[in-house]
Design a protein that fits this description.
Layout: E1 3-6, E2 11-13, E3 22-28, E4 38-40, E5 51-53, E6 63-71, E7 80-86, E8 101-102, E9 108-109, H1 112-124, H2 153-179
Parallel strand pairs: 1-7
Antiparallel strand pairs: 2-5, 3-4, 3-6, 6-7, 8-9
Length: 180
């Protein structure tokens, strides 16, 4: 249709076709529909309404091409196509420059009243010496890590004797089977 200044999430609509059970739809950023951005075609993806609502935001100032065709139980129409251009990116309004008031101490204020209030309180109050800061560490008791007990040597002796006895038992079993 050649519309311009279209919003970034448009609803694209077309006329209903009598006897249509659905509509195939494609949206692309090129007129040949090479790798369309949206392709709702075929039995599983076909639209049942004569419109499509764009879900994702399109780019500013970009031409987009879309096409639709009606599908009935035994026939399909030819593609009807249209083109539109999205709106231009809005230019942000510049913020007005704020008036700034400064005192002899180098402090800045947004209004004359704030500056005068500061000067009035500065004259009324003499500088005060800052108090000494004392840091008192909290009493925290950290338990020592548990020591792993050392395994006594007699445990290793028992394991070694057990291993020798098992090997001897296996040797006896093998020898007695050969004899029989």
């Amino acid at each position: 249709s050649g519309a311009e200044d279209v919003i970034l999430k448009p609803t694209l609509a077309w006329g209903t076709v009598a006897g249509a059970i659905g509509y195939d739809f494609e949206l692309a950023d090129n007129p040949l529909f090479v790798m369309p951005m949206v392709s709702l075609t075929g039995d599983m993806a076909r639209l049942i309404t004569p419109f499509y609502q764009q879900v994702t935001t399109l780019d500013y100032s970009t031409y987009y091409y879309w096409r639709a065709k009606a599908v009935s139980a035994d026939a399909e129409s030819v593609w009807s196509s249209a083109v539109f251009m999205t709106m231009a990116e809005p230019i942000p309004e510049p913020e007005p420059e704020a008036e700034v008031w400064m005192c002899s101490e180098g402090l800045t204020f947004s209004s004359r009243a704030a500056l005068e209030a500061h000067l009035a309180t500065a004259e009324a109050h003499q500088p005060v010496e800052p108090a000494d800061i004392v840091v008192v560490p909290p009493d925290i008791i950290v338990p020592l890590p548990a020591e792993t007990p050392i395994t006594p040597a007699w445990i290793y002796v028992i394991i070694g004797v057990g291993a020798v006895l098992i090997i001897a038992l296996l040797v006896l079993i093998v020898r007695t089977r050969r004899v029989a």
